[in-house]
Amino acid sequence: MKLLCDHMLGSLAKWLRIFGFDTIYPDSTTDDEAVLRIAKNEKRLLISRDKELIQRAKKARISVLGVKTTNLIEQLSQVLTTIPINEKNILTRCTLCNTPLLSVEKKNIKEHIPEKVFKTRNEFWLCSVCHKYYWMGTHYENMMEKINKLLHGPS
Ligand SMILES: [Zn+2]
Known about the structure:
Oligomer: single chain
Bound molecules: zinc ion
Low-confidence stretches: none
Number of domains: 2
């Protein structure tokens, strides 16, 4: 399912991309009218904290998920309860531009990766648009741990 986060949900959009969801995040210059039009035309689930926008989406028969909290972890767990993560899709999309990532061979990219990361990680991905490299860092692992706790209870 393709997603569209409203402009107040930038961090949420970034993490949804990390989890592999095709997620559009319009900036604050995109008005509500345009946001609703994109959601409708591209059949995206609108994720919003804006009550008025949610009401308008419902009237226009656009699928909408209203989030109530400003806490990122709680937002993520609410979204992921509605649309489950497909583990195969994790880290397949650029967090900056939403482009699908390419898997790259470790031996070819040594000069682009911090030494410590290069020593400890084996899988790397590249965004061909932003030229940004990705790997499963500790930041990502910490987040997964928090999400798993929320979704499955403390282990
Ligand atoms: Zn990118």
